[in-house]
C-alpha cells in the first residue's frame, strides 16, 4: 500500500503511550521550536493553512487568535475526542496509538493562546483510547519537556483526561463545555462565544483531535512543508474513514484532496463482490450524499462543497446498488432524532417528525402529502436550533431528496 | 458378515439372564476407532470468523461459512417492531427464557420457526437430572457431568447447572409440571448411564412433552408476544457491535420483518437435520443449526464444533422410522443390547459415546444385523426385560409401546433393532454463566450453546441445561432495559462477512442459515426459505 505523505498515521508515530519512542522519532522537536518563540506559532499555523478537521473546516488560526486575544486567570483547551458520528473512527485511532502526538499538539496550542488548562475529552465507549491517554499524560507530566513548558508559562500546565457523557450532542463545542463543567451536554446559545466565555466563564478553545495532531509536525517541519502535502490547492493530509461495501474498509491518511475514485478503488480495494456503487454518505455532522457521477471529486472541503455535499469528518460510507436509500436515510435521521437534546423545540419535534414521516414512507405507508411535508421541512427547519444537530438531520434528508427523489416517489403509495 | 434380520430374528431367544460383556478396548481406544467424531474425512478447518483455524465438521463448516440469505435491498419497506427482549426459538429453553424475562418486567417477543413447542424438548424422554435425593449432592452431579464430558466442560457452567438443578425442579413444579411420584408423594428417580446416583426425575417416558406442555401454557397465559412461522434469518447489531435485534422471515405473509430489541436470546436448538456423516437423526424437523450460523456471523465464539452425540438406541428398522429415539430409560431399567450372536458386548449403562461406539464396532466387525442394503443394527432386548420385570414396559414406557405398535412389533416378545442416531450437538456458542455469548447483548441457551456438557452429555442434563440457562439468560437479558437505547441498528456485519468470505476465497454459493432440512426442499432451489416459493405462487394465482 502506498504510504505517500503520511504524517499522523506513519508507522513510526503509532507507538502508543511510550514517550521515549515518540521522542526518538522526532517527537518533541515541534514543541521545542514552539517554546523558542510562542508568539510565532499562530502566524505559522496561519501560513500552513491548517483547518478544523472535525468537520467544520474553519481556519484554525482564527480560533486561536480569538482565544489568545481574551485574557483570564484560567484558560481552557478542550481536545475534542467525543467522535460519535456514524462511520467516523479516526480520533480513537489517534488517541490510542499516538497519544503523545495529540498531547504535544495540544500543548503547543496552549502555548500559542496562553491556555493553562488542557482537557482531553474522549468518548466513553473508547475505553482503550482513554486508558492510553491516561498513561501518556502521566508520562508527559514527568517529562523534561513539561518542565520546560512550566518554565515558559510560569505555572504548572493542568492536564485532565475525561470521559465524555457518550451523547452524540456532547461533541458540539458548547455542549462539550457544559460536559467539562460536569453538567448534561446541552449546547449553549451564542454569543458569548467559547473564545470569550467557555468553561466556567473562562476563554476556551475547542479543537478536534486530528487538528491538534497536525500541529507539532507543522512546527517541526515548517508551514511550507505542510502546504505541499496536499493535492493542488489544498494543504496537508486528511484521515479518511472508509466503510461500507468496500473490500478493505479502514482509516486512510491521504493527501487532502485525494479523489473519491482513488480512495474507493486503490485503497478500498474496490466494491465488495463487484457490486455497483450507488452512493457515498459523507459522515459526520454534515451527513450528505455523493453519487457515482461524483467519483472524480477531490475530497477536500471546498471541492466537495461545490457538489452540494460536505467533507465533514472525512467519513465515507460506501453503499452499493441494492441498498435502499430511504431506509438508510431513515436510520440516519433516527440517529439524529435520538440524539437531539430536546432543548430547542424545532429540533426536538422536527427530527422526530422527519423520522416519523420517513419511517412511514420507508414501510410503504407514505403518501404524496408526506413527501411534500418532508420537502417543506427541509426548507423551514435549518438553523432553527442552537446547535447544528437539526441541520445535520435536514442535510442528509435534503441531499437524498435531491439525488434520489425517484426512490422516494417509488416508495409512496 | 452380518446376518439378515429374518435370520437373526429366528435365532433370537428371550432369556432372563445373560453373561455381562467382556470389553477388550478402553473407552478412549473405542472412541478413537469407532466414534463418528473421529471419522477421517469428516473434519475440516474453518477459514473465516471467530473460530478460524478450528476443526469443524465439514457440513457444519459449509453452513457457518455460507453467504447470508438477505441483503440490504430485501429490507426496503420491511415492517419494524420494537421489544425489550427477543427470544428466537420456541422450545423449552426459549420458553423458559421468555417467561423469566417477562416476569422480570421486560417486553418479550418470541419468534419461532415453526409453532410454539415444535422442538426437540418434546422428544426428550428420559428425564431431567437434579440431585434432589437426600444422599445425593450437587457436588456429585457436578463430578458425574464433568467426567462424562471427558473433563472438557466449562466448570463454572457445570457448577451453575448442578447447583441450580433442585431449584429448576421446584420452578417446573410451580409451572404445573408433573413428575412420577412414589406412594409417599416423593419424586421417583432413576439412574442415567455414567452417573453415580439415582438422579433422573421423569414423567413416564415423555418427560419433555410434559415439560413443554406446561411451558407452552405458561407462555400462552403471559403477555409474551409469540410469532409463529417466523424463522430468524439474520441478527442485527448497533453501532458498537452489540446485538440489537433480528430480521425474521414471516412465512405466512412472505415478508421480512425487523425486530429491534435490547437483548436477543437465541434458543434454536441443534443440528440433527444436517444429517452429519449421513447418520439418521432423532431430532425434529427444525433442528437445522440456524442459531449457530446467526451467532457465528455476528462474531460469537464457538466451542467444540467437532463434537456431537450419537444416541446409542435409535430405531434402525423399519426404514421410514429410522432414527427415532428409544429412550435411554429402557436401558436404565435394565435392558440389554445384544449382537447377532445373542451376546452382550457392552456395559449398557456406560456413557452414550461409549455405547454408541461399541454398537458401531459390532456392526463394523460383522456382528450386526442387516436389513436390506443399508440399515444395520443390534438388538435391544426388551423381551429379556419383560422376563425379569413383568409388566414394567407397559407401565413405565407407554411411548415406547406406542413406537412398537407403529413398527408392528410386540416389545414383550420381539426385540427392536437399534443403531446410533445423531442426537445432540455437544459444542456450540461459548457462553458465560448467564448464557451471554462473546457478543454483547446476545444470549445463547439450550442446545445451541456449548461448554456445558464437554464432549459427551449424560442423559437428563439436556432438559436441565435448557431450563437452568434459559432462566438465567431471561433474568439477565431483562436487565438490559436499563441500558440506553441503540443509536443505530443495521445488518452491517454482513458486509464484513462477505468481505471475509471473498478474501478467504470461499465459494459463497450456499446460503445460510439452512432453515429447513433437505427433505423439505421440494424444488430444485437451494435458496428456498419459504419466501421465494410462496412469492412465485402468489404471483401466479393473481
What do you see in this structure?
The complex is a heterodimer of chains A (413) and B (542). Chain A is α/β, with parallel strands linked by helices and 413 residues long. Chain A contains 17 helices and 9 strands. Chain A has helices at residues 19-24, 29-36, 41-48, 60-69, 91-97, 99-113, 127-141, 144-153, 173-180, 209-221, 223-227, 260-267, 301-306, 325-339, 345-362, 368-380, 389-411; strands at 76-81, 117-122, 158-163, 204-208, 237-244, 250-255, 277-282, 288-290, 315-320. In chain A, strands 6-5-9-7-8 form a 5-stranded mixed beta sheet, with helices on both faces. A 4-stranded parallel beta sheet of chain A has the order 3-2-1-4, with helices on both faces. In chain A, strand 7 and strand 8 form a beta hairpin. In chain A, helix 14 (325-339) packs antiparallel against helix 15 and helix 16 runs antiparallel to helix 17 (389-411). The longest helix of chain A is centred in the C-terminal third of the chain and has 23 residues, at 389-411. Chain A is globular, with a radius of gyration of 21 Å. The mean pLDDT of chain A is 92. Chain B is of the alpha/beta class. Among the domains of chain B are: 3-34 and 314-421, Flavocytochrome C3, Chain A, domain 1, CATH 3.90.700.10; 72-121 and 210-307 and 426-489, FAD/NAD(P)-binding domain (3-Layer(bba) Sandwich), CATH 3.50.50. Helices cover 31% and strands 20% of the residues of chain B. Chain B is built from 16 helices and 24 strands. Chain B has helices at residues 5-11, 27-34, 58-64, 92-103, 138-148, 155-175, 207-220, 290-297, 329-332, 352-364, 382-388, 392-396, 398-407, 461-478, 493-503, 531-541, and strands at residues 3-4, 43-45, 55-57, 67-68, 79-88, 108-111, 128-129, 189-191, 198-201, 225-227, 232-238, 243-250, 255-266, 302-303, 308-315, 336-338, 369-371, 375-381, 416-425, 428-430, 442-444, 449-450, 489-490, 511-512. In chain B, strands 5, 6, 10, 11, 12, 13, 21 and 23 form an 8-stranded mixed beta sheet that branches. In chain B, strands 1, 15, 16, 17, 18 and 19 form a 6-stranded mixed beta sheet that branches. The interface between A and B is medium-sized, with 29 and 22 residues.
